[in-house]
Amino acid sequence: MLKLLRHLKVFRWAIIISVTMTMLRSMAELSLPTLSADLVNIGIVNGDIPYIWRIGLRMLLFATIGVAAFILSSYLASKVSAGFARLLREKIFTHVENFSLHEFNRFGTASLINRTTNDITQIQGFLEYGLRMMVTAPTMCLGSIALAFYRDATLALVFVAISPLIIVLIFLISRKAFPLFESIQTRLDSLNLIVRELLTGMRVIRAFNREKYEQSRFQAANHGYAITSIRVNRMMGAMWPLMSLVINMTIISIVWFGGIRVDLGYTNVGDLMAFIQYAMHVVFSFMIITMMFVMIPRAAVSANRINEVLDTATKIKDAANPREADKKEGRVEFKNVTFSYPGAERPVLSDISFCAAPGEIIGIIGSTGSGKSTLMNLMLRFYDIEKGSILIDGIDIREMELEHLRAMIGYVPQKAVLFSGTVQENIRHGKENAHEDEISWAAKIAQAAGFISHMQEGFSSWLAQGGKNISGGQKQRLSIARALVRKPFIYIFDDIFSALDYKTEARLRQSLYKEVVDSTVFIVSQRVGTIKNASRIIVLEEGRIAGIGSHSALLDECAVYREIVASQLSEEETA
């Protein structure tokens, strides 16, 4: 928790003023019982009307000061807590943006969302309450006890008797509650994960009639979360009756023993009234402390979960002294590259070596799981290799700035990803300052101009989240346009033609190849027809290169490639 709170130095003046106002309010409230005791003991008993007016006006003044200080301190506490939450969300979001795929896989999307929203909200609530009450509680408690001893040291021993009882009660309940709060946050992660999967996979669930199964999964997660929450609420709920019992017993004790002392002449009625108000302040302070101990465990768990994200250093980061090629061309070279996923028993790619020059179209083909997409991910440095090196224009990509590396590459993933916004905004993701002419050109080359022109508002038409309001082929063509508008040195097309029909694919390849003649192009595909006209074809088999060459050369020299060609030809002939 303290590790996160160091960020509060940005709001130090607001915190200082808020704490000052809180102390001023506490002092104003503490003065009221003393004034009321004097009002009764001197003014009312003696019938001194001018004195009553003076004390009454002073009490009104202190009450006004207390109210004004309370309003200002509450406003500043809310401003500080909301600002702190905003700052924390920005830090987490910025930090997570730099995560490699390894770190994303470690936490999971649902957990990261929950940590960025629910966990920060828990800390925000704790901070807002704490800024107002963590100063109020000790000031009111210690001040009331001190004033009580000043008025009547013997009667004030009642406070000494109840304080240990309340402290032990708070300690025992908090000790039991802390593990449960940690369990609540973990179960909430699981619940968010299931809900997210349910909403994103609704079509598949309905298509396979799995509604009852998914409902049972949700009910199990929801039931676990509910049971844990009920246990915590029962425990915390038991605290309030016990605290109420202590409050009432305290007041009864004060009235009982105070009445005896008034009867014996050791104290007077005004002081007894002041004692009752002091008792209310002391017990109120302990109730505030109780609330803090209710909030601290959950906020501490949330803080630990947030620190876990912020303390996770991404394995992929810029070099200490980044290098940049003197002349950017887009020449790519793999030298004895070996790579394994974390926890894998064997490498996904082993001893991969080849060179691709500008103007070449490199086709990559292989069976499922042979490492085609992994090869492209390594070029983008989504993962770091174990052995060997990947060079772009003679510079190892690990020695390049990530921003410069990825600025050189136009990447179209196998699964098209679009964002909520207009068609134009989605294409501009490739180049932020792209002109309308560039956007129109990219859409035309990607064979997207036709369907865009038929949309109601053209390039200003709105796309739903993930592009759910257009077809898969249309999403893929917009993804291609997004890469084209960048005009990079290197293009990576990761099995992008699978969502397109043969006619659209042929037109797209014909227009595409004319525009990328000066770039290095990598095309990953399952279709032989897509890559057979490539300059060279790399055939992967179980993470190793089975052959490199042209279509005709591989037919003569590579048995794996011949099998792939034969299987696809036979499928087409059967169809």
Average pLDDT score? 84
At CATH level 3, the topology of the largest domain is ABC transporter transmembrane region fold
Biggest pleated-sheet summary:
6 strands, mixed
| Count of strand segments | 12
What's the CATH class label of the largest domain? Mainly Alpha
Per DSSP, the total helix count is: 19
CATH superfamily of the largest domain: ABC transporter type 1, transmembrane domain
User: Beta-strand level of the residues, as a percent range?
Assistant: 5-15%
Helix content: 55-70%
Overall 3D geometry?
A: elongated
Q: Report the end-to-end length measured between terminal Cα atoms.
A: 65 Å
Low-confidence runs of at least 5 consecutive residues: 571-575
Q: CATH architecture of the largest domain, please? A: Up-down Bundle
Strand order of the largest sheet: 6-9-10-3-11-12
Summary tags:
single chain, 575 residues, alpha/beta, ABC transporter transmembrane region fold, Rossmann fold, six-stranded mixed beta sheet, four-stranded antiparallel beta sheet, elongated, disordered C terminus
Topology:
Elements: H1 2-5, H2 12-46, H3 49-97, H4 101-107, H5 109-151, H6 157-200, H7 202-207, H8 211-264, H9 269-310, E1 332-339, E2 349-356, E3 361-366, H10 372-379, E4 387-392, E5 395-396, H11 402-407, E6 409-412, E7 421-422, H12 423-427, H13 436-445, H14 449-453, E8 462-463, H15 472-484, E9 490-494, H16 502-515, E10 520-524, H17 528-531, E11 536-541, E12 544-549, H18 551-557, H19 559-574
